[in-house]
Amino acid sequence: MNIKKVKLEDISKTKRPTLGDEVPVEVFRLLRIIGMYSILGEGSGYTLYLAGKELGVELEVNTVDELGTLLKKLKIGILTVVESSDDRIVIRLDECITCSGLPDIGKMICHFEGGIIAGAMERVLKRPTKGVQTKSHTSGFDYCEFQIHLL
Question: How far apart are CA 69 and CA 63, in angstroms?
């Protein structure tokens, strides 16, 4: 059997005349936090980061502003560049789809978002990147923060 890869442009196509193309954040979180963790265990964070990074590289964005506009349109979060240098960019993400409003559980869980941002920045800057989450609702902050290291 020849299985074709689903492309990014295919994912946005929906045929749901009654229910529409949006799902509640709760459904996303059930799949993302509970579903992925129960299947992959502790390795889910790295797997989600890699999946997000692969997606981020494929996004059709050419500037940080375009990335911010897309993340807001997709309701993933509101992106702000906090700091930028030759070797690092610090990104703040408000209203993060994965963690905004969740309690402090002592760890950060927004690996997928970090991967998307790192991958998109790699595309924009045409340089390899590595994203590291440094702040989250689930670590006692009211926003997420990611350090994007330029390699």
Answer: 10
Q: What DSSP string describes 110-127?
A: -HHHHHHHHHHHHHHHTS
Is there a domain that residue 61 lies in? yes
Model confidence at 126: pLDDT above 90: yes
Condensed to tens digits (0 to 9), the pLDDT of residues 60-89 reads 999 999 999 999 999 999 999 999 999 999
**Angle of CA points 8, 149, 139, to nearest 5°:** 85
Detail the DSSP E strand segments found in the chain: 78-84, 88-94, 129-135, 144-150
Helix (H) or strand (E) holding 11: helix 8-11
Structural domain that includes position 144: 45-150
For residue 103, the model assigns a pLDDT of 95
DSSP state of 75: T
Position of tokens 């690996």? 111
| Partners of 150 in the β-ladder | 129
Q: How many domains does the chain have?
A: 1
Residue 100 lies in a domain: yes
pLDDT for residue 13 is more than 90: no
Task: Say how many residues make up the chain.
Answer: 151
